[in-house]
Amino acid sequence: MALYEVLHDTIYRYDSAVLLSQQIAHLRPRKRAGQHTLAHALEIEPAPAQCSEARDFFGNPVTRFALHAPHAQLAVRARSRIRVDAPAWPDPAASPPWEAARDHLRDGLSGHAPLQADARDAGQYRFASPFVALGDEAAAYADYALQCFTPGRPLLAALRALSARIHADFRFDPTATSVATPVAEVFAARRGVCQDFSHLMIACLRALGLAARYVSGYLLTEPPPGQPRLIGADASHAWVALWCPGPGWIDVDPTNDLQPGAGHITLAWGRDYGDVCPLRGVILGGGGHQVDVAVTVMPVDEDSRPAALDAPQ
Amino acid sequence: MQVQPHSPPELLAAYAARPDRYDELCQRIGSVLVLRPHWRDFFHGLAAMAPAELSARRAALRRQVHENGITYNVYADPRGFARPWELDLLPFMLPAAEWAQIEAAVIQRATLFERILADLYGEQALLEQGLIPPALIYGHSGFLRPLVGAKPTGGRFLHLYAADLARSPDGRWWVVADRTQAPSGAGYALENRSVVARVLPELYRAAGVEPLAPFFEGFRDSLADLAPANALAGGEEPLIVVLTPGPYNETYFEHAYLAREMGFPLVEGQDLTVREDKVWLRTLDGLRRVHVILRRVDDIWCDPLELRDDSALGVAGLVAAVRAGTVTVTNALGSGILETGALLGYLPRLCEQLLGQKLKMPSVATWWCGEPAACAHALKHLRELVLKPAYPSFGAGPVFCRDLPAAELDALAARIAARPFDFVAQEMVNISQAPVLAEEGVLPAGRRADDAGARGLVARNIGLRVFAALGADGFRVMPGGLTRVASEADMRIVSMQHGGGSKDAWVLASPARPRPVPRIVPGQLMPSALGTRVLGLSSRVAENFFWLGRYSERADAAARLGRETLARLGEAGERADEDGDIAAELLALCRRRGMLAAETPADGASTRPARDASTAHGTAVSSGPARAAADARGEAGAGAAPTAALAQALFDPALPGSVVASLRQVLRLAALVRDRLSPDSWRIYNRLSEFAAAPEDELRAGDALQRLDESLLSLVTLSGFVIESMPRDAGWRFLSIGRRIERLQFLAAALSALLLTPSAGGLKALLAVTDAELRYRSRHARGLAPQPVAELVMLDADNPRALRYQLDSLAEHVALLPAGEALAAPLRRRLAALDALALCDCFVHELDEARARGTGRPPRARHCEPLREMLDDVWACGNELAEALAQRYFTHLDARSRATVSL
What we know:
The structure holds two protein chains of two kinds.
Chain A: E1 2-25, E2 35-45, E3 50-55, E4 61-67, E5 71-84, H1 98-109, H2 117-123, H3 138-146, H4 155-169, E6 171-172, H5 183-189, E7 191-192, H6 194-207, E8 212-219, E9 236-244, E10 248-252, E11 264-270, H7 273-276, E12 279-285, E13 289-299, H8 307-310
Parallel strand pairs in A: 6-7
Antiparallel strand pairs in A: 1-4, 1-5, 1-12, 1-13, 2-5, 3-4, 8-9, 8-11, 9-10
Chain B: E1 3-4, H1 9-12, E2 26-29, E3 32-35, H2 37-47, H3 51-67, E4 71-73, E5 82-84, E6 92-94, H4 96-120, H5 125-128, H6 134-138, E7 160-167, E8 173-179, H7 186-199, H8 201-207, H9 213-225, E9 240-243, H10 252-262, E10 266-267, E11 272-275, E12 278-283, E13 286-289, E14 292-295, H11 318-324, E15 328-330, H12 347-355, E16 366-368, H13 372-380, E17 385-389, E18 399-400, H14 406-418, E19 423-427, E20 433-437, H15 449-452, E21 457-471, E22 474-477, E23 482-485, E24 501-507, H16 539-572, H17 577-592, H18 601-607, H19 628-633, H20 640-649, H21 659-672, H22 679-688, H23 701-725, H24 730-754, H25 760-769, H26 773-779, H27 786-795, H28 803-815, H29 821-836, H30 839-853, H31 865-889, E25 897-902
Parallel strand pairs in B: 1-3, 6-24, 9-10, 9-14, 14-15
Antiparallel strand pairs in B: 2-3, 4-5, 7-8, 7-21, 11-12, 12-13, 16-19, 17-18, 17-19, 20-21, 21-22, 21-23, 23-24
Helix pairs in contact in B: 3-7, 4-12, 7-8, 16-17, 16-20, 16-21, 16-23, 16-24, 17-24, 21-22, 22-23, 24-25, 24-28, 24-31, 27-30, 28-29, 29-31
């Protein structure tokens, strides 16, 4: 079990005044098996004219807010205290053959066979989505994935193999891509960041007829030996979950080629990044803008209050 | 082929009824073809017309289409972006009994779709029970997840529904496609009726046709009932708006037409804003609460915040407002999903389950490949089928597999096998054909054009779009619809976007019921019982009216100045050099107004039209009267070359100040405010379009003069219409302000150029371009003198083309705008300065001096300086006012909403 304090600060600086701003934040961590949010606060500056909490279609908590007065800067600071238990993932070798999972979904979703509620939910994540296009390029993703998804191979073993393959074939390169880089380009260039690798893996799995979702969250990073933890040095992270008949959703992190443990903190999930983007908005005015995001993940003791919360900034 | 009895052979000589298609006009009895009974009266009426008469009727129909400006935008049409609407003279006829069946089937289908939508965005029991395969919904980009669980105000999703019907060879009607998103075509159908009924009045009356207008009146009135009950403050009337993607949408004409006919404001996304989860319209008087949005924007584009974030057409926060139940959007956001062909195969079962009825009208046989058995069938019979995407995708039209080479067919089969969920296979239907009046020259070889004339009928494939609208007592069907006609024989696709035409559809009244009384003006709606709502103009519309006024006046000024300059250039070639100087002054003025290209790089800086500071709309045409002297000096003599150059330049669309360029802006802006223009004024604008085309051949001076005269005549008609017929609302006020600012600046520039060079020729030209010659002569018999000319063109309070009049009128107009008093003050200051100006000081001495020296040409008098300064100041005050108006009242087009995301 681990306890964390997570700080997630987003600051927009605009070239000229923004007259009207409407924002949707996915910054409150969702509840899931093995993870509990003990405290959460969202600070918005300047103070919004309107602010409300709700749940989105995928069950994630969302905060919607709007600013009506002209402003040249918008700061959104999320503070969360979260308890995470390391999940116990099932034995990959004991999972069903991957074709069984595919056929189960196909038959249920096409109305050919009765579909259980869990599989119906999984069906939401089986098809193309705005950031995961699956037109004719889908054949190439399927070919790539089939190297790992050999006939009859247990689903979760194949999943781990695909994670290893992506990790080996692709280079982590924050300069190579942007938020809007399509999967096809990442696939061709063989480089990108966690968001790109997650989208690519999702594309591969869906091209095979499997259900895969995008998980947005944080990852505990260890500072270099002998150095103190730097505030804001971390970043938000993303990984993938695959649906397996029986145990349900199984997480895998292709960027680090591992199965998430107590160091992975889940924020939200959806079909792709677009469903769970931490802060998305529409502004009127503003000219150009610059955005700075600072994330800090700090392990804390059960009773302590970390310095950063006592004196923010 | 022979048609009996009594068929005038020449009308049907080229008409081929085919055994493999149902023919709407004829039926085969034994070995002969006879007219179907419901066509007989109409057909004989038509046959009784002389060929010349028929040609005249068709010409009248085309004129009406042109004058009403009915257009359909086709993106790659060689005939231009806004294509004239194609309408056939002959209606499509349906007998009452047959119509009753269609009507019942369409109502049943609309009701069924309403129930399906309510389930998909509610409990989703249909997915749970497998009555609709979940994949069909989950894989569809039109399944709008943010709307799941949102109950529409009033509880209904579907308010306007359309079905595309076609008839198979056995005479049965089939549904080919469903329109549940924002069905288009109803407005075109109404307009078709108004044109055809006017062109064939006797046949229309004799046939006893069910009128269309009551359907629209019912729909309009039912929209008022959709306003959220809790949203209306005591006694407040609901505000209903029509949301359009804008003039580049292919059916923009219809959006504007319906908005005008039903009396609702036509708005674009940027006109609306969401505050506190409520929708507001930006108007000159501030924000006004919107209660109902009749949308013509596809749902995924309606909200960049929660739907597609790259949409510039939507309203950020609209989804939240819908969820909060503060606004009714119709059809409901998310209803587009039912347009997928993949659903068709499941409808019979759904109808039995949800309505407990058998589906009254079958859909064309359809296999959704996501279902394994259907996929196997489709792959086996691929060659006979039409393939369509199951989920909307760009540029993916139907594929007629029969036309594919073997290799491509195999490739298609492989794609279907790899991604079965993505494909729908449909049976190919041989749809029915109906008669259309042939174009001259398309009759079969061997027939001479003169004996064909307009008399020949030919057969074309048709499809019928039928509309149902929700009223207080359920769905009502429009009696008729939009009949679409293939453009060529054997053309498989019947669609306007593919170059097809249209027909009016006549549903004949049942003989058992009293005949419908024809409306005096078919196709025109009765006023709403609600009465017209007095509503502030939206900021965008105000700005468009302002620029419409400016460009109309700019075109007028350019035509007058061009006419005078051409005339002077002609005279200057033969006569005294004073005319040569005046011609040079006039050319310089033309150049400063962007009517002529800059001649030398040296004066390029002063002649290049500057961008108006105020707005993205316009270009300023003058850099101020102070430049006059400098430009005039740079101008070399006269002669034939400048005449020819000017004659070309006046109609060169590339020159920002040319007559043609200004007229094009006028037409563009008129199209933008079209919903607020009466049909009569629209016809005047339409006539102007003849002069907005660049001439094909090089124009001689004489031709150019005639063209200028004709353009001016239309412009004057237009301004007369503005004075006589336009209601004195805010739109009229902004139009008038635009005109007055433009005229003010033109006068300041012309006075500066022509009055301050006191020569008889200059004064004469000044009187000519300000249309004041007659008035001057009636007042001053003694000949031209600077002071009386200045009095008439500058100070005369009664002359609507005098400088003072513009200032006066502008001050009056802006003072009446909301909080406009502050804008009037600078204008009043200029008025006072004008009145205080001692004209006699400027001119009297000057002429005396000139006479005294006997040179005939005085040097540029220093006495004129106060006058010159004042004219400069007046010119500048026009710009200041335009900028102030833009800041205070107009939408800032450069401040469009943008989406932002963060990691």
